[in-house]
Amino acid sequence: MSNDTxxxxxxxxxxxxxxxRQLDALVGTWQVAGPEVSGQVSFRWLDGGFFLAxxxxxxxxxxxxxGLEIIxxxxxxxxxxSHYFDDAGNHLTYTWELEGDRxxxxxxxxxxxxxxxxxxxxxRNSLSxxxxxxGGGYESTMTRVADxxx
Length: 150
Fold this sequence. Notes:
By secondary structure, the protein is mainly beta. It has strands spanning about 30-35, 35-45, 50-60, 65-75, 80-85, 90-100, 100-105, 115-120, 125-135, 135-145.
C-alpha cells in the first residue's frame, strides 16, 4: 500500500472523553445467570482511563465463551463503541449507551436489530435485561460479586 492511500493517525485526546465515566457503574466482577447463560464477567479501567476492558468467561447455549472486549469513545460516531475478541476467533463490534439506570448495547451501530436492554437495581449491584435479535434472544441477570478499582 502506498503512503498516499494511508490515512494519517489523528492526535490522541489529552484526556478521556467524559461520556466514558458513565461506565463506572460496571467496574467490578459480576456473576451472570439466566436460562441460557451462566458465568462471570469483569470490567476494569485500563491505565489512563481511556478504555474500559471486559473479561468474559461464560457458557451460552452450552458453548463456552472466553473473550476480551475493549470499550472506548469513538470520535467518528461520537458514541461509546467496543471491539470484542474471543477464543473462537470472533471479532464483533458494539455500541453502548447508559442513561440513568438503563443500559443499551447494540450489536454494531446504534439502532440495529440485535440489542441488549437492561436496567440496574437502585444500588447498581445487579443488572437485569435481555439480548434480542430477529428470531431469538435470551434473558440474563448480572450480580456484582466484587468491586474493582475505579
